[in-house]
Amino acid sequence: MWRRHNEALYLMIMFRSIKTRLIIFLIPVFAVIVTGLGFFLYNRLDNIVMEMVDHLLSGKADLMKGLVHSDHGDIEFEISHVTFGDYSINASGHYFEIADTKGNSLVKSISLGDHTLTGSRYPENTGYFMGTGPHQEPLRLFIDEFQVLGETFVIYVGEEIREELALLKNFRIFLLTVFPMTIIIIAIGSMVVIQVSLSPLASFSRQIGLITEKRLHERVDSRGVDSELKQIALSFNETMNRLEKAFQAQRDFLSDASHELRTPTAVIKSTVDVTLRRERSVVEYREALETVKDAAERMGGLIDRLLKLSRFDAEQSEKKERVNLKEILGTALKTITPLAEAQEIDMYTERAEDVTVEGDEDQLVELFLSILDNSIKYNRPKGSVSLSLAILDNWAVVKVADTGIGIAPEALGKVFDRFYREDMSRGEIPGTGLGLPIAKGIAESHGGKIEVESEAGKGSMFTVFLPLAASS
Amino acid sequence: MRILIVEDEKALANNLKRGLSEEGYSADVAFDGEEGGFMAETEPYDLIILDIMLPKVDGFTVLKNIRKQKIKTPVLMLTARDAVSDKIKGLDTGADDYVIKPFDFDELLARVRALLRRKGEVKSAVIGVGDLEIDTAGHQVKRGGKDINLSAREYALLEYLAYNKDKVVTRIDISEHIYDYDFDLDSNIIDVYINFLRNKIDKGFEKKLIHTVRGAGYILKE
């Protein structure tokens, strides 16, 4: 059973091969072209040869007709007395015969002997025909009517065409042997050409086969390759460059993530290790458990955000509903207010227009929460955060400005990097270093973007651009 | 033995301080690189446990600075950075050991003991002086095969003398190495503890092991 399956598979693979397909296409096409050409050439030669013979025959017939004349009312066949040239030699290959319309032979060349050219052809037909001579040799025959003194006669002129037929036969044999050979040579030649021009593919495939996730830096050698295949090699290499970069980013992300998880894990492990070294009081156990709980909660939060982030990487925002951005900002503001109050940060909205965008309401709230959270955390005590929402061209533009510590110019490009926290200020300002990357992920999955400008010591301004919903 | 912990993760730093203190070490904590560097350069620590990702000044820089000051205190890097390149960088900068978080506390203690032994003549966890045996791993002390019970302070003092056996240690050495930053220095208390130790170790034995060097300090030797 599986053998049959394999055979089918093998056949499929064969037909899936470019070489096989080219051969399967090329050979019949060449065969048809070459056969057609052969027929054409043969017919042309046949015509040329026969026309030459026919021309000769009609000339001779005209000559013969001229030799029939009347002598005092009687029809005389002068030619019967003429024993000229080839016509007087038996079976010379040159024949003529004149008959009346009833097919009765009146006069004929000596060369015919007992044979007669009058056959069944006349009176139905006049013109050029194939016939046979006294020795069954092939003849070309010209039959024509002519009139002398109102009486109709039929003239038959024949020429033996054995040589001409032999010529045609030779030509036919030539065509039948040379043309199949031509087809075979073309087939072999095109196979070689295909083989040679496709051989870089095999080399590519070998080189590509060597590329694994550990050897992503390997590339296909595109030097000295035909231009069509060079394109493949170049675009493959280009793709590999992108993949390598993406892989590296993933690897960095994983290493950052594991690094971020190591610290809370170390807290849990060391708390448990130290606590278990001896008998403790209830208070000490409680303290230890609370430390473990805090660390576990931190890990949980971190894992949550990591998952969220990886989802933004993997897919576009699926939910597309029309939402009022002003309401979304309102929800985000309400959620963040307790944090702002705790830090005595003044939050105010400069202006907010009614703007409709398309997207996922929960995600958009999270986007602005992340930015507001950032603006509050990195603010100075009793600072402020201002918020505005406006329309610019086809964009909804939300600006969030704070009066905080600002971002150093060299760090400006990194604030959206995962786990990046300025000055590595862990411990001083709580956070995972994932808020802004998540905000960026949400904005981008909605077809938007986030920009940031900042002056160290004075504050930062985040600008979120979201495409306006198509007006309905 | 006095240990400096430079670690910004407060819960972890506190765990380390507590665990090490319970082992008889005196431990100080610095929560950022700047403070840690300052303490390492101004106090004579026997060991520094150093994180890499620290606020203000990172661990590599702290290490570089203290080595530049010719401070040879063993440094154990305790970090979440597990890349081989980070290990190499740490060890090449002058770290003596490299432990990756999360770690096993018992293993950390063993590494701490190994590093503390390294600077003296002592190579094994059990230090012998005459017929006195001090097991630094189990904190057990025996003389002539008989167990001797010591309080944590007495043990810390004896261990410090043992790590520096055959060498004179001053009262200031002792106070700096077995008490932490918060201890209010009063050298009389050292004399008191030396007396406690003598009562437990030398009393009843013909050969005395703890000797007073007049005007200098004490020495533990045969």
Describe the structure in brief.
The complex is a heterodimer of chains A (472) and B (222). By secondary structure, chain A is of the alpha+beta class.
Number of extended strands of chain B = 12
The major β-sheet of chain B equals: 5 strands, parallel
Order of helices and strands of chain A: HHEEEEEEEHHHEHEEHEEHEE
Give the class of chain B from helix and strand content and strand pairing: alpha/beta
Rg of chain A to the nearest angstrom? 51 Å
The gross shape of chain B turns out to be elongated
Structure notes:
The complex is a heterodimer of chains A (472) and B (222). Chain A has 472 residues and is an alpha+beta fold. Chain A has helices at residues 2-15, 18-66, 162-209, 227-276, 282-314, 325-342, 361-377, 435-445, and strands at 68-71, 74-77, 94-100, 105-108, 127-132, 138-148, 151-160, 321-324, 346-352, 356-359, 384-392, 395-402, 449-455, 459-467. In chain A, α5 (282-314) runs parallel beside α8 (435-445) and α7 (361-377) packs antiparallel against α8. Chain B has 222 residues and is an alpha/beta fold. Chain B contains 8 helices and 12 strands. Chain B has helices spanning 10-22, 33-42, 59-68, 84-93, 105-118, 152-163, 171-178, 188-201, and strands at 2-6, 26-30, 47-50, 75-79, 97-100, 126-129, 132-135, 140-143, 146-148, 168-170, 210-213, 217-220. In chain B, the strands form 3 sheets. Chain B has a 5-stranded parallel β-sheet, sandwiched between helices. The two termini of chain B are 22 Å apart. Chain A binds chain B through residues 255, 258-260, 262-263, 265-271, 273-274, 277-278, 291, 294-295, 423-428, and chain B through 8-12, 15-16, 18-19, 22, 31-32, 53-56, 58, 80-83, 100-106.
